[in-house]
Amino acid sequence: MINLPSLKEANIEGKTVLLRADLDIPIDNSKISDSSRLEASIPTIEFLLNKKCKVLICGHLGRPTGKDDKPSLLTVSEWFAEKFNSQAKQISVGGFDAWEISSNLTLLENLRFYPEEENNDPEFAKKLASLSEIYVNDAFASSHRDHASIVGIPKFLPHFAGLHLQKEVETLSKAMENPRRPLAAVIGGAKIETKLPLVSKMHEFADSVLVGGEIAEYIRELIKVDHEKIGRKSHLLVAHLTPDQKDITEESLEKFIETINKSATVVWNGPLGVILPGNYENSSTKFARSLAENPNIYSIVGGGDTVELINRIGLKDKFSFVSTGGGAMLEFLSGQILPGLSALQK
């Protein structure tokens, strides 16, 4: 188990806190389609406000190439304002554009407007740190990034793990260290380079490894060779795709469902096929419903597209734990050390 400095044991009463939150959410035409990551930050924000802290929220949205208005956090500021029954007011804090949500709550503009953020520039981290007395990282989904607001700021301030980050680490650690077995790992999506390490790790650890999505066809033979090389007697099932390559076949879906119904723990990251808005008859939806309806399974679900889907079809509360992490969840489960967690331990 990774030991992180606990916010609940910190002396933070009345202090100014810089809170790194997960703000990278899907926004279409100024509408938020999945607010899961924002919702996850609320317990930590309320905890800090109850401690009479002044809270400065910071984070990023999208991949801007410079300072422009397209990936602005304006919509996010409006979301927070509605949550706290207030109105967002544009201000400046220490040279940074920001919105005042309330007298003790402020949101800084997209940190990726500044190239120094992704370059982990120490002077930029120092400038951000100068805005506060305490640093709290509650951004699990960004903690695999070696960026200034994740690993730079803790060098200059007393630092702690936020309540959601702590819960993510504890839940995923338990799932890996002492899971209820049989354990099935279901891995989908299209990002081969990020998914393959998890597939390899799960060969050694899980009782069943189920691979769907676009990656299934691309790395079918590679997975089989890797599986045979390890020599573990885990059950490997690589789905076949439909003729248009946009989903897994009905037969593969049935085998997936049959396997998870024999499992005590299921970890699922990545859709099994292409997810189109309004299309609820895809394999990912059917799989999600089957997993959610089985009360005997401890289910852990993660990945942006996967979480957005289960939220859209109203199943989010039906799973045992929903991770806000996509790449971070994959890297954590693969046994990699996340830079953001290491920074908090120093």
Describe the structure concisely for a colleague.
38% of the residues lie in helices and 18% in strands. The chain is an alpha/beta fold and 346 residues long.
Mind explaining what this structure looks like?
The chain is α/β, with parallel strands linked by helices and 346 residues long. The chain folds into two domains: 7-168, Phosphoglycerate kinase, N-terminal domain (Rossmann fold, 3-Layer(aba) Sandwich); 179-333, Phosphoglycerate kinase, N-terminal domain (Rossmann fold). 38% of the residues lie in helices and 18% in strands. The chain has a seven-stranded mixed beta sheet. Strands 12-11-10-13-14-15 form a six-stranded parallel beta sheet, with helices on both faces. Strands 2-3 form a two-stranded antiparallel ribbon. Helix 10 packs parallel to helix 11 (283-293). It is globular.
Highlighted features:
single chain, alpha/beta, six-stranded parallel sheet, seven-stranded mixed sheet, 2 domains, 346 residues, Rossmann fold, globular
Low-pLDDT residue intervals, each spanning 5 or more residues: none
What is the CATH class of the largest domain?
Alpha Beta
Overall helicity = 25-40%
Going by CATH, what is the homologous superfamily of the largest domain?
Answer: Phosphoglycerate kinase, N-terminal domain
Q: Which percent band covers the strand fraction?
A: 15-25%
Dominant shape:
globular
The CATH architecture of the largest domain can be named as 3-Layer(aba) Sandwich
Largest sheet: 7 strands, mixed
Distance between the termini: 16 Å
SSE pattern: EEEHEHEEEHHEHEHEHEHHEHEHEHEHH
Overall number of structural domains: 2
Strand order of the largest sheet: 5-6-7-4-1-8-9
Q: What number is the mean pLDDT?
A: 90
Record field, number of beta strands: 15
Question: What is the CATH third-level topology name of the largest domain?
Answer: Rossmann fold
Radius of gyration: 21 Å
